[in-house]
Amino acid sequence: MKHDKKRRFAVFLVLTLIWMVVIFLFSAQNGDDSSDTSGFLLNLLCGIFRVEPTPDNAELLTLLIRKAAHMTEFGILALLWLGTLRSGAGKAAWHYPAAFAVSSLYAITDEIHQLFVSDRAGQITDWLIDSAGALLFLCCAWLLTRLKSAKAGPGSIDNA
Asked: What is the 8-class DSSP label of residue 123?
């Protein structure tokens, strides 16, 4: 049993570190490459939802996609940190704020990193959006954990 716990911790930690590298690589894209990625996502999503981007709405749609991507990147990071912490030390209420803090701190370093990338800029608003994504995903995880515990019956609610 102890071996399974160590393996689970190792898997979560490796996945978390890989995801941090993925975020770093996206942030290392210069302005043109980042715009190309956003354009690809815009075309993909517009195709899926059968929306035709027009000159009037393309800029707004691109902005929304970019900010949603920020939130999602750091929301996933926060969930991975939560899994890492929980697999290493069991269920505890402090795991949620710790996962948020680590994700938000990494978002700060991500914005600082972008200051050194051609045609990119580190922005406080992006850090806030990244942190909001981490918080949103963690709140959803907490809520789902509570709902699952409540559905399991009285006396089964843990300190998640």
From this structure: -
Output the average pLDDT for the chain: 91
CB-based contact 46:61 (threshold 8 Å)? yes
Q: 78, 136 in Cβ contact below 8 A?
A: no
Q: How far apart are CA 110 and CA 103, in angstroms?
A: 10
User: Dmax of the chain from CA atoms?
Assistant: 58
pLDDT tens for 32-42 read 888 888 888 88
Residues 6+ apart with CB under 8 A from 135: 78, 100
Closest listed residue to residue 73, CA positions, set 157, 11, 134, 156: 134
In the three-class reduction of DSSP (H, G, I as helix; E, B as strand; rest coil), residue 144 is classed as helix
Residue 67 to residue 128: CA distance in whole angstroms: 10
**DSSP characters over 68-100:** HHHHHHHHHHHHHHHHHHHHHH-S-TTHHHHHH
Q: Which residue type sits at 56?
A: D
| Residue 158, pLDDT score | 53
> pLDDT tens digits, residue range 57-99?
888 988 999 999 999 999 999 999 999 999 988 778 899 999 9
Alpha-carbon span 31 to 67, nearest angstrom: 15
